[in-house]
Write a structure and sequence with these properties.
It is built from four helices and four strands. The protein is an alpha+beta fold. Strands 2-3-1-4 form a four-stranded antiparallel beta sheet, covered by helices on one side. Helices cover 28% and strands 20% of the residues. Strand 2 and strand 3 form a beta hairpin. The longest helix is centred in the middle third of the chain and has 18 residues. The chain has a single domain, classed as Alpha-Beta Plaits (2-Layer Sandwich).
């Protein structure tokens, strides 16, 4: 699942993609203005989770779709630094996906892939308790 699918939570960076906003920093000249010749852009990584619940009867089908989808991400999305799917231990119908994208372009590319649409076609009809909730985070610290 891309975190960029049909369903988006209120904190999703989907709004930025829809309006063409890509975080960037321009080098500022001595007077404080932008210098087109010296402009240097960079994008920040995107840290995001997706939480959802599916019908109990669909768990095996969704698990198979997750395996296939994550394999696709591993092989075809170099801009997806990390993609992991977890299943809740005490409720097999609940899932969380964790992702780190290099930047908005990698995030958008992921969300617009045919593989995302195929994955969504499996889990979307099986959702219970509401849509997938996507949440953006800021990195604070890591042990790596």
């Amino acid at each position: 699942m891309s975190a960029c699918g049909v369903f988006f939570g209120p904190n999703s960076s989907r709004r930025r993609r829809e309006f063409g906003f890509f975080p960037a920093l321009a080098v500022v000249d001595k007077l404080g203005g932008r210098s087109d010749s010296d402009q240097e852009e960079y994008s920040m990584p995107i840290y995001q989770t997706a939480h959802y619940q599916v019908n109990a009867s669909a768990v095996d089908k969704v698990l198979a779709a997750i395996e296939k989808f994550v394999d696709y991400v591993r092989q075809n999305e170099p801009g997806t630094r990390f993609y992991s799917s977890w299943q809740q231990k005490d409720d097999r119908t609940r899932f969380v996906h964790l992702f780190i994208f290099d930047d908005e372009m990698a995030h958008a590319s992921h969300g617009q892939s045919e593989a995302v649409r195929k994955f969504e076609s499996v889990y979307s009809p099986e959702l219970v308790g509401g849509p997938v909730v996507f949440t953006d985070y800021e990195h604070v610290a890591t042990n790596r």
